[in-house]
Amino acid sequence: xxxxxxxWDQPPELIGPTEQHVLNCLAEHENPExxxxxPSEAVIALKTKLSRAAINRNTEKLEExxxxxxxxxxxxxxxxxxxLRYYLNVPESYRAKDVDWQKRSTKTxxxxx
Length: 113
Prior knowledge:
Elements: H1 2-8, H2 17-28, E1 30-31, E2 36-37, H3 41-48, H4 52-64, E3 68-75, E4 81-88, H5 92-95, H6 99-112
Antiparallel strand pairs: 1-2, 3-4
Helix pairs in contact: 1-2, 2-4
């Protein structure tokens, strides 16, 4: 929930409407248990009605602005990357109000101890 609230709170002078649309989609797909979003480009395209080229362009802009971080994950049998993980740079002030995120943090701390 914190990611969705944070995404909607982005000021229009920071990001354009298409970037906002992509960011909202990523926030909607963030999994608090894992700490990142991992929708495929096909899923993002289906949800946003944007081309893959537009998705790539806008995720690059969001990354340049420090709102997200893309991490390539896994490889196909042909050696190309299988998927992307999208880490949203949601401030702690949003995370502190998110019960699901706090559960994740507690699980992570227990696993480390």
